[in-house]
User: Fold these one by one.
Assistant:
Number 1:
Amino acid sequence: MSGIRFVVEKQVATFINPLKDNQLDRQEIEVRFDPLLGHQSVFNPDLKDKVSILFPETDEKYLADVVEATRPKCFLCDGRWKETTPRYPEELIPGGRLIKNETVLFPNLFPLFGYHAVIMLGNKHYRRLDDFPVSLLCDAIGICIEFIHKCFKADPGARYFTINANYLFPAGSSVIHPHLQLIGGSLPTTFQEQLIHHSRKYFEKNGSIYWKDLVAVEKNLRQRWIGEIMDSCWISSFSPLGQNEVQAIWPDKKHFLEWNDNDVESAAIGISGVLKTYYEMKCSTFNFSIFSGALDGFDYGMRSMMRIITRQNVVPDHRTDDYYFQKLLKNEIILLPPEELSQKVKENLDNCLKSQ
């Protein structure tokens, strides 16, 4: 029997509301608990009236002005990356960089881990979220996997890697030009360690793999189920860590060294479809992270998985969407119920699959 439990607790806030003619207002609050990690996400349906304040629509003119102002000095545009970006030692990467079509992998000038690479996502300085082609994402994720193989071969102590994205400055990017970041080393990141730890605890308690159980339960319920792309499974998160979170799970792949071309392509198709959905929802920024267990395979219970979320849209003087509630209390606010998000994403993923 599966150990998956979708726990929801209800609370009611009661007060005299000046926005409702000073009448007594009773608002029902839903607290959701992540089935693996236990973190809380909070949904108040009445927040729908505040969405335009919390997440104002993208100021397209302002964004266009920023794009044009930054293009001439962009170190990645017009082939400038050939002169401005660092290189890895020849013994790790012959030629110093990994290049595939319009994608280029090179070291971060200010690394945060022993291996910290930047991957240029094509030659275009700016892309709308409906303009991240599957082929481009395939090339970028493919060279990430190639880099991970090279790093682990050269340094078997570098066992933990993640593939990540910050897109546009409200999401934490310091440059407009689309890119990914890959980090790895001898230690997992904090959240990666939590995933590995709780996956192991689940296995020890239930005798089964959490990620396989989650896929089976969500597929059966159909409430947050989006679909399958080759060997990957896509759902909207029951208790998200950020706005509009979608999860991808590779239930048979413990770590990145087990990935093949189909896994890379499934990630690319899924990300492209999710970003198209975000664009239709009038979003302009995002983050994602792809996790795996230790490359030596010792993290039993863990499987490769991804979380992708939207962040604040691009507007002048944008506000951050993370404050004490998320950063310190480690709770998240739900504005669009995951059960509705899954239906929005499903259509775009189906279209992406049909076009391949």
Number 2:
Amino acid sequence: MKIAFLGSPAPAATILERLVNSEHIVGQVVTRPDRRRGRGSSHTGTPVAATANRLGLEVAYRLEDLRSDECDLAVVVAYGKIIPSSLLERRAMLNVHFSLLPRWRGAAPVERAILAGDAETGVCVMGIEETLDTGPVYAEERVSIGSATCSELLSLLADRGASLLTDVLSRWPHVTPVPQTGEPTYADKLTPSDFVISPAMSIRDVARRVRLERSRIDIGPLQARIVRATISQESVAPGDVQYASGLHLGVVDGALEIHEIQSAGGRVMSADEWWRGAQRHAPMAWRAINPP
């Protein structure tokens, strides 16, 4: 089967590579245009563009350039833009979506599942309709969330999603979808405030936000990003920093133990290494960095 592939981020690139290594032919890849990064003039392409170029695939950067008449089917994975009805009318399209539909339709299903404290999530292969993530489901697999970070969960779901997709394609078109049932919830696009943590928040809220891997704080005189942390059993006052058998931050109802941390402009390192290198000495305090 000849397939057109539409996608942009790293999980989509994982699925693209699995498709290329399957029995199917990826005739064209469509991804989002390169984006300018930082204050300079350099531009960075999407992970899908980088993977497609490495594999020698044709890459287009506009939906208008999709040659749908030259493929048997189009596959969409986190492309980042709504597919217009004019394209849906011309070619059947499948979407690999990282949630258990109808829970978490929309832009940030994995992040919203973590923030909501869901016990499980999953990945599905669904048909695409004009309305947002409402199409029937061809295949679905559930996974436990546990304490996984966002990147860990996305990596797992991309791997499982690739397997589901290739299985559906191997049986296409003799595979029957199931309509979605139940009350839908929507995964709104994340905003800077979703990553803010502060001593006034509950420990569960703080731990979940840290698992998105983008939370930054002022810790003593330094600014840092919390890369990995877990709920601690230590007793630490809200706003205090304690270093004893690990690095702990106090919040209103508990403490967070930091395992990996990254100072502004520095590399990711263990909390112990960071503490020694920063030459910090308790007592210290930490506070939130308000979003721009």
